[in-house]
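Lecture 7 notes: from sequence to structure.
We start with the chain below.
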Amino acid sequence: MATELIGYLLAVLVGVSLGLIGSGGSILTVPILVYVMGVNPILATAYSLFVVGTTSLVGGVQNAIHKKVDFKTVLIFGVPSIVAVYLTRAYLMPLIPDVLFSIGNFQFTKPIALMVLFAIVMIFASISMIRPCPNCKDADDGEIKYNYPMILLEGALVGTLTGLVGAGGGFLIIPALVLLAKMPMKLAVGTSLFIIAAKSLLGFTGDLQGSETIDWTLLSIFTGLSVVGIFIGIFLSKKIEGNKLKSAFGWFVLVMGIYILIKELFL
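Predicted structure tokens for the same chain:
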């Protein structure tokens, strides 16, 4: 009961992260669900899609009200991403065998594989957060330019990754929008939230076709607290310098990623 309470309190942190930097929600959600709440890793990636998708949708609407969402980009990036995440959850995930390989008494199972992949994604994400981004300016001037082939390709790749590990992919979407569409940072964050919401929620519908039993009570409470967190995050984003916060969060994600790798492979 105590660990469950801790897990619900940490759910607020998921929303705070999404509100502050437009990413990091799933990077926190999956480990919290697996290690604190005791949810199976495969089911945790599905829960993560619902939690992050719903929370991002609320944050996206808030940003849209303040005209910090570019809906043309949501469409260009979002369509291939949504198709990829749905196909991955509905068709690719069931094809992955329960045991990938064995070495002596050690079995490299599907849940271990997903957590290891997730840890690798976390480590790469942390590097992109820690490194300064000289092109990520907060200025609102400058014309948005679309590199259509690259945006479509990255949308499909991020969608596949989302489907496999339940990661919303904000840490990949935001740099792509800033570098490929020359989009101002704050506009990229708001736009990213809408893209994350669409593909995460569509990906979750792919899981509803499976045989897994969804714990709607846990999912509803966790999601509700995460939504509270995103309002806190949006409020704090007006008070805290984004680059400093992003760097500090990156170091935290790096430590978590290394911990998950060690725990899954060596403990």
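Points to note: The chain has one domain: 2-266. Strands lie at 99-103, 106-109.
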